Amino acid sequence: MPKIVDHDKQRQWVAEAALRVIQRGGLEKATVRNIAEEAGLSVGSLRHYFTSQAELLTFCMKLIIERIEERFSSLSLNGPVFEDVKQVLMQFLPMDEDRTMEMEVWMSFVAKALVYPELRIMTDHMYDGLTKACHYVVDTLVAHKLAKPELDLEYEKERIYALVDGLAIHHIMRPQQLPTEKIERIIDQHLRSLCLDDKAMA
Amino acid sequence: MPKIVDHDKQRQWVAEAALRVIQRGGLEKATVRNIAEEAGLSVGSLRHYFTSQAELLTFCMKLIIERIEERFSSLSLNGPVFEDVKQVLMQFLPMDEDRTMEMEVWMSFVAKALVYPELRIMTDHMYDGLTKACHYVVDTLVAHKLAKPELDLEYEKERIYALVDGLAIHHIMRPQQLPTEKIERIIDQHLRSLCLDDKAMA
């Protein structure tokens, strides 16, 4: 009887192996041979699942985005509103090992996407997601009347967006200088600065 | 008579060629052959100036840092104080072609430094410079009594630091979404938010 292999599961298995290889050695180590070895497959069968390196990398990026989306759908946002919006932002920050690994690998993709436009679709997808999250955060604070009425909303959305990405990069580059507790404190303090004094704690 | 070649100038010439190669094709295109061709030199003479790729890349990173330092030393900081500190931050942002090119190439170095610790010395050097600039900005606002007295200075320094890097990355990834005018407006607005209302305009 022929062995039945779940094609989608196998692709995911390969992509996860690729992410580990990239984290350890960067994109230049993401050769078919290295990834096949890490996945415990032959080079031939790896080529069966991914016909080009671009296809494999795009799949890896999609996998990272899916993981973030999964974390989102499992978030229990049931208040207080201030804590909920904070939780939303924290999903994009390297607060644990998984998220740190994702960010580290993602940095390589971002650098590569600067010169390979075919990878832009995925980086744009990620940036759209983070942009949406930042809009959600500001709009939710406004909708619940927690936000100071004088806020320049467009500016606040861009500011949170830049702040989140800047903190993420500084943590993965120099975790000692910017430990996760400090990231959380900065996000918390920043969000509070957008809120009416008596409302943020409610 | 033997040809006299200025060794330092020639190294700089090679590094500049390397930066162009990296900007066009990313680090993976930064091979000895490609860089020699771009510089109009033989592979042999390039090897004479740089004995390893790590040495060449480190030199390229140093070149970028030197360029930023040169821009700094030519800044005429003679007030108003608010405009001066803004100018300091703008040196780290991709406001023109040169700075955009530097940032794009730097992104590749940062991604590579995550897996090659020998490149960390240079990324640390850059991050130390940006950190120092952020401290300077906040401390100067305080020293000139422009800053709101209730500011949490340590937090404000970290926040500016993250903001500058986040804005820089978002511009090089998606210049249409975050044009330079918008970057300047965000930096301006952020700095104003740290100042006493009547002082920022002075």
Automatic annotation (TrEMBL), chains A, B:
GO molecular function: DNA-binding transcription factor activity; transcription cis-regulatory region binding
Keywords, ordered alphabetically: DNA-binding, Repressor, Transcription, Transcription regulation
Keyword Lyase attributed: no
A UniProt-annotated Pfam family: TetR_N
Residue ranges: DNA binding: 31-50
Entries under InterPro entries matching the protein: BetI_C, DNA-bd_HTH_TetR-type_CS, Homeodomain-like_sf, HTH-type_TetR-like_transc_reg, HTH_TetR, Tet_transcr_reg_TetR-rel_C_sf
Cited SUPFAM superfamilies: Homeodomain-like, Tetracyclin repressor-like, C-terminal domain
Domain HTH tetR-type residues, every copy: 8-68
Domain of life: Bacteria
Name under which the protein is recorded: TetR family transcriptional regulator
